[in-house]
Write a structure and sequence with these properties.
The chain is of the alpha/beta class. It has 9 helices and 12 strands. The strands form 4 sheets. A 5-stranded mixed beta sheet has the order 4-3-5-12-6, sandwiched between helices. A 3-stranded antiparallel beta sheet has the order 10-7-11. A two-stranded antiparallel ribbon has the order 1-2. Helix 5 links the parallel strand 3 and strand 4. The longest helix is centred in the first third of the chain and has 25 residues.
C-alpha cells in the first residue's frame, strides 16, 4: 500500500469545521472563503477515499470515519505546532496577541499581566480589549480576540476555570431598599450574564422588578448605582468604596456563584497565544505578596 502525506493545513481546517459546526464559521476563523475550505475537505476525502462529513440540519457532523480521523488529526496538528514552537525558540519574530479581559477585573489584574508580559515575553506585542464577557466571546468567535478572561455562571463552561467568584446584590452606600416596592434594577444592555441571572433569580422568586437604568459598560452601570437609581449584581470582591453589598439577603433571592475563566479562540491558537495563556494561569495561581491582587 502506497502511503500518502496529509497536509496539516487540511487537518487544521477539518478540526476547525468540527469544532465550530460548519464550513462558513470555519472559513471566517481561518480567514478563508467558504468555497476554498469546501475544496480542502473534498481533497481530504478524495485522498482518504472516505466520507468525513454528513449534513445535520444546518450543521455539519462527522461520519464514523470522520470521528476516527479527528483524534489522529488533533495529535498530528499538535505535534506539528510543538515542533514549530520548539524549533522557532529564540528566533521567534515579534508576534501580536490580542487579549480580552472583562471590565470587572481590570483594576485588580490587568497591570500584572502587562508588566509580566513585558518582562517574560518581550517578543510578544500584547493588545488588550475590554468589555462584557459576552462581547469578548463574540470577539473570539469573529477572530478578533485570541484569548480572554471572562466571567460566567459556574458549571457552564468548558474553558479553564481560574477561580469561583461570589456574586452579590449591590447598591450605592446611601441607597434605601424598599422591600414592598418593585425591585429597581440597574443592568447591562443586551446579552449579559449578570442581567440574565438577576432577572432569572427575581422571576423564580416571584418578585416584581423594573429596569430603571441600562448601561453599555461597567463605568455607566457603576455611576447609575452610585446615583441610587437601583440595585444590581456584581462580583462581591470587586466593589468600589461608593458601593455596598446589599444588607437585605432575606428580601432578595440568592444569586449563583460565577467563574472567572480563561478562554481561547475556538479551534485556533499559536505558540505566542499559549505563552500568554500560561503566563496568566501562572499569575493567577501565585498572587503577589503585596495583596494588590484581591480577586
Amino acid at each position: 500500500m502506497r502511503l500518502s502525506n496529509i497536509d496539516t493545513q487540511l487537518l487544521r481546517s477539518f478540526i476547525t469545521i468540527n469544532d465550530v459546526g460548519g464550513f462558513a464559521k470555519a472559513a471566517d476563523i481561518l480567514h478563508m472563503t467558504q468555497p476554498a475550505i469546501s475544496q480542502q475537505m473534498r481533497r481530504l476525502e478524495e485522498m482518504l477515499g472516505l466520507p468525513l462529513f454528513r449534513r445535520h440540519g444546518r450543521l455539519m457532523r462527522l461520519t464514523n470515519h470522520g470521528e476516527t480521523l479527528l483524534g489522529y488529526a488533533r495529535r498530528i496538528v499538535a505535534l506539528n505546532d510543538e515542533a514549530v514552537r520548539h524549533m522557532g525558540g529564540m528566533k521567534r519574530t515579534r508576534e501580536t496577541v490580542t487579549l480580552g479581559i472583562t471590565e470587572h477585573f481590570l483594576d485588580a489584574f490587568l497591570h500584572q499581566i502587562i508588566a509580566e508580559s513585558a518582562r517574560r515575553l518581550p517578543e510578544i506585542r500584547l493588545i488588550v480589549r475590554t468589555g462584557t464577557s459576552q462581547r469578548l466571546m463574540n470577539g473570539m468567535e469573529q477572530g478578533e480576540i485570541d484569548l480572554a478572561l471572562t466571567l460566567g455562571e459556574a458549571g457552564g463552561t468548558d474553558a479553564s476555570t481560574l477561580q469561583t467568584i461570589p456574586i452579590t446584590w449591590v447598591s450605592g452606600t446611601d441607597y434605601r431598599f424598599d422591600s414592598s416596592d418593585a425591585v429597581q434594577l440597574v443592568v447591562f444592555s443586551g446579552q449579559c450574564m449578570f442581567r440574565r441571572l438577576i432577572i432569572n433569580a427575581l422571576e423564580a422568586a416571584n418578585r416584581v422588578w423594573h429596569i430603571s437604568y441600562e448601561s453599555d459598560d461597567l463605568a455607566g452601570l457603576r455611576a447609575a448605582v452610585r446615583a441610587n437609581l437601583g440595585v444590581t449584581a456584581l462580583p462581591a470582591q470587586q466593589l468600589p468604596t461608593y458601593m455596598q453589598a446589599l444588607a437585605v439577603p432575606a428580601e432578595l433571592p440568592a444569586l449563583p456563584v460565577g467563574e472567572l475563566s480563561l478562554r481561547y479562540r475556538p479551534a485556533w491558537s499559536s505558540p505566542a497565544v499559549q505563552d500568554v495563556g500560561g503566563l496568566i494561569a501562572d499569575l493567577w495561581g501565585h498572587p503577589p505578596a503585596s495583596g494588590a491582587h484581591t480577586v
